[in-house]
Design goal:
The protein is mostly helical. It has one domain. The chain contains six helices and no strands. The two termini are 31 Å apart.
Length: 163
Amino acid sequence: MNTKLTPALKGLITGLLMIGIALASFYGRLPADSPLQYLVYFIYTAGIAWTILAYQRSGTFTGKFWDAFNQGFRCFIIVTLMMVAFTVIFSKMHPEFSTETARMYKEQLVKEAKSKTPAEIEEEVTRYKNGYTTMLVYSSIFGYLIIGAAVTAVTAAITTRRR
């Protein structure tokens, strides 16, 4: 059986690997600043490159930048959606992260915001804590889209120049 790996399927595989590494890092109790976190971005880059390079070797390769970019886009948009879903689920499963960051935010406000009353500080911290998951999702969407578009553009440009 010869199954053709579409760009979306390659995105699914890439996303699953990225989620697996993120979970292994977390449950393996690796520090948040561990260099292993960069492996997730390497996998992301490799998945996009895999998609575009496979397209370049296919019989349907046109040599046009936008056709190559489109293949990479189909991969990275799936990865982005998966990572956003993962971010939401993981954040909801671990409310201690929002609690801890809200506590640190409150400490910062107490030190720096001398003009605010304790009630205003509490209100701002509550708003911060309630918007924590939304903030993570926004940054996840933005980050993965920017990285995906950049890697796709560079890889598409390189592969179309070689023709």
